[in-house]
Request: fold
Amino acid sequence: MRREERTLGPSEVSMRMLAPTLGYDFGLVEQARDRLDVYAGIPAEVLLLGGASSPAYLRTAMDALADALPTARRITFPKLGHGATGNARFGGKPDVVARRSAGVLLRLSVESSGAHASPDAVGIDLSEARRRLVGGVGRLM
Reply:
């Protein structure tokens, strides 16, 4: 954590700063435990993101969510773990996650518009959309 704190930018948050909030996160996870039936009623399309190198309990939870959500799409990133979206300086690969997610989200957008032929049919410029998404993530790193 010390290395992280020495290299943080002025608007970045360290794990030490986030630590006091983790109890709330764990509490929410505990409340949702064994409640997969609730997720089955979600009608919206859901994109689940996970890393193949994430801890086993997270991969198991992702499997259960994918089974419970009727419209779930899933991306598993090989060789990436739970910190894949984290800062690149600390081993995260947000550019990889952004590029792959953008492609899936754009395909979903085209499919949901009813224009199955091509993104052009609904006025989506895929290269521009990807550039903006990945560029935006780049500014956050």
Remarks:
- Residues 13-140 form one domain.
